[in-house]
Amino acid sequence: MTKRFAPKKSYFDIVHVDSKTLKAPLKNQQLLILDLNGTLVSRVRKRSMYVRPYSNKFFNYIFDNFEIMIWSSAQPDSVHNMCRMFPKEKKEKISLIWDRKSFGLSTRDYHQKVLTIKDLDKVWEQFGGRYDATNTILLDDSPKKTQLQPYNSIHPKEFDHNSKGFILNGDSELLQILDYLKVLQFQSNVANYIKNQPYKKREENRTEEEEESHLVEFYAFSDDYEKPENRLRQQKKKGEPETITVITDKMSNLAVC
Question: Which of 20, 103, 183, 207 could be bridged to 188 by S-S, CB 3.0 to 4.6 A?
Answer without folding.
Answer: 20
